[in-house]
Amino acid sequence: MYFMPSMFTDSPNPPVRRLILLHGLASTPKEFGLLFHPLRRLGLRLECPTVPGYSHGMLTHRARWADWIDAATESVSELLADGEPAILGGLCSGAMLSLAVAERLPRAPLRGLTLLSPLIAYNGWGLPWWYRLRYLAYGLGISPWFAMSEREPFGLKNERMRQWARAQMEGEEATLVGPASVPLNVVRESERLSRHSRQLLAGLRRPLLVIHAREDEICRLDTVRQTIDRLRPGPAGLASIEVLENSYHMISADNDRQQVAELIAGFAAKLRPGGHAAPATFHISPRVAGAHARTSR
Fold first, then answer.
1. Residues in a beta bridge with 74
2. Contact 241/50 with Cβ under 8 angstroms?
3. Which of 101, 157, 177, 251 has its CA 20 to 30 A from that of 126?
4. Is residue 150 in a domain?
5. What is the number of structural domains in the chain?
6. Considering just the CA atoms, what is the radius of gyration of the chain in Å?
7. Which of 266, 254, 268 lies closest to 31, judged by CA?
8. DSSP helix/strand/coil, 98
9. What is the pTM (predicted TM-score) of this model?
């Protein structure tokens, strides 16, 4: 698939004013609702596509992590068809998904990547005690009959926001912190996606900004740091991690959300001089091989 260059500007390196974010596992763009206005005030337009087979209401138990990459690549490609430069990123599993999409679009007008609370691994302090036994359910083939339920603190350090999330879960299926529960077999696919995307980091050719909370209860900060530190100094000349001090996992809705918006806007500003210009055309790399889709845990 090929795309024509943007006709909206005569500048060979127009400023980045567009941010595309992929939401977390089995969730919705509601996760970014509280970032929309802060980003707009800082000059960034936020776009949050849904992904068939991955998003809430579109989730299919038969979908595999490679199918998510295929669907997300198509969704992002449609947004980029006008050639306007953008930053691509995501939250939690969406962050890992954005890495895989960027790898599939090597010549797309993507100036950089931003990962919010990237799910490098499920190893945070807030996971249920039984989660370490999940491999038993995987091995017995019974994971479709189990689910990981959202629970306190809902990824939020802010108590008022936590109360709001709690109220949403009583009356809605999808909330600003994601769904009330996720089938365990879907969680397994997210782990496979994380493993795949971690391997892609070594070949990263775009500037990268990672934003992670020190007290993230889903994925430990030291795990993220160790992963990102291996990239420095990266081939793109820019791979950095910013640590938030007053949030948990859902940094798009927690105490530091204004800082998140400011960090992304600052990252976008740094990409303007000499950034990656949109080429005349760009193509989508071949789909993930079927062998990858069958990767075991």
1. none
2. no
3. 101
4. yes
5. 1
6. 18
7. 254
8. helix
9. 0.86
DSSP secondary structure letter of residue 171: H
Residue 235 token pair? 């081939």
Supply 112's token pair.
Answer: 């950089």
For residue 76 the two structure tokens come to 């992002």
Distance CA 279, CA 5 (A): 7
- Structural domain of 257: 18-293
CATH of the domain at 43: 3.40.50.1820
What dihedral angle (degrees, nearest 10) is formed by the CA atoms of 260, 263, 122, 91? 60
Spell out the alpha helix ranges (H) of 107-245.
134-140, 159-171, 184-200, 221-229
Report the distance separating Cα 213 and Cα 50, nearest Å: 25
8 Å CB contact between 261 and 35: yes
- Residue pair 280/61 in contact by the 8 Å Cβ criterion: no
Structural tokens at position 222: 């030291």
Residue-by-residue pLDDT tens, the chain, 297 positions = 444 444 344 455 678 999 999 999 999 999 999 999 999 999 999 999 999 999 998 888 778 999 999 999 999 999 999 999 999 999 999 999 999 999 999 999 999 999 999 999 999 999 887 777 777 777 777 667 677 778 889 999 999 999 999 888 877 667 888 888 888 889 999 999 999 999 999 888 899 999 999 999 999 999 999 998 877 554 445 689 999 999 999 999 999 999 999 999 999 998 854 344 333 233 344 444 333 333 333
In 3-state terms, what secondary structure has residue 211?
A: strand
CA distance 21 to 32: 8
Residue 57 belongs to some domain of the structure: yes
The number of angstroms, rounded, from the C-alpha of 76 to the middle of its chain's C-alpha atoms is 13
Residues for the chain: how many in total? 297
Cis peptide before 233 (omega within 30 of 0): yes
Contact between 295 and 73 under an 8 Å Cβ cutoff? The reply is: no
Answer whether residue 6 is part of any domain. Answer: no
User: Any idea which residue has 């709690």 for tokens?
Assistant: 166
- The answer to whether residue 258 sits within a structural domain is yes
